[in-house]
Structure formats: structure tokens, C-alpha cells
Amino acid sequence: MKRQKAGTPKARFDLRLPADLDTKVQKIATRAGTTRTAVLVAAVERFIYAEDTQAGVETIHERVAALTVGQDRMMWELLEVRAYLDTLAQTICGSQGKFDAFLAAVDKVKSELAEDAG
Fold first, then answer.
1. Which of 21, 34, 48, 106 is disulfide-compatible with 38, CB 3.0–4.6 A?
2. Span 40-50, pLDDT tens digits
3. Can you tell me the distance from the alpha carbon of 53 to that of 45, in angstroms, rounded to the nearest whole number?
4. CA–CA distance, 33 with 44 (Å, rounded to integer)
């Protein structure tokens, strides 16, 4: 009997995911230009091999805490950027009417970008 190389699948199988997760995996695969299987294998490898040794973070609870701290820091930095941009836009627009028109245009473009991304 011929020996099979390690890491070579013996047979193909169909992994059924919840619809919303399947859609997200497909979007990631499409953006990355790869297959769903490659995305799932990479996710499992990252979860098992990389995440538990990265930066001394050992447990899921520590990972969540570290991510929360990072998310909070990023939120405060984004708020600061938003404050600078609002102040700059108000100064450039000069009047409240022009500034309101500017904000309306920003909302329109943001909605269009959200539709494209979604």
C-alpha cells in the first residue's frame, strides 16, 4: 500500500457553516483571491498555533481583554481625528450652512461606501 504524505487530505469533505459565517468566509476568500478552504485552514492554524503564543497571551479571556484595550485606544484616537477634521471643516466652510451641506455630502458618500463594502 502506498503511503500518503503528511498533511494531504484523504478525501474531500463539505464543511457546512451557518449562513452568515459562510457569507463572511466567502467575502474574505474573494478579497484575498483564494478559496474558502484556504481561509478556513488559515483561521484554524492561526487560532491553534499563533494566537496562543503571541505576546504572552495565553487564554481566550486574556485575548479578549487585550483586544478590548486595543479597541478602546483606537476609538479614542479616532475621536481625536474626528475632532480635528470637524474643526478644520468648520473653519474652511466658514458658515454653519456650508458646514451642514458639507456634512450632508459626507453622509451621502459614507452611505455609498457602506453599500459597496456590505
1. 34
2. 888 887 777 76
3. 12
4. 19
Distance (Å, rounded) from C-alpha 118 to C-alpha 113?
8
Question: Cβ(86)–Cβ(99) under 8 Å?
Answer: no
**Cβ neighbours, 10 Å, residue 39:** 19
Contact indicator for 28, 39 with CB cutoff of 8 Å: yes
pLDDT of residue 104: 92
Question: What pTM did the predictor assign?
Answer: 0.41
Single out the residue of 71, 63, 21 nearest to residue 46, CA to CA.
63
pLDDT band with cut points at 50, 70 and 90 for residue 93: very high
Which bin fits 107, alpha (ψ -120 to 50), beta or left (φ > 0)?
A: alpha
Amino acid at 52: D
Amino acid at residue number 7: G
C-alpha grid cell, residue 107: 453622509
Per-residue cell: 81:
481625528
The grid coordinates listed for 48 are 491553534
Look at residue 58 and tell me whether its pLDDT is greater than 80: no
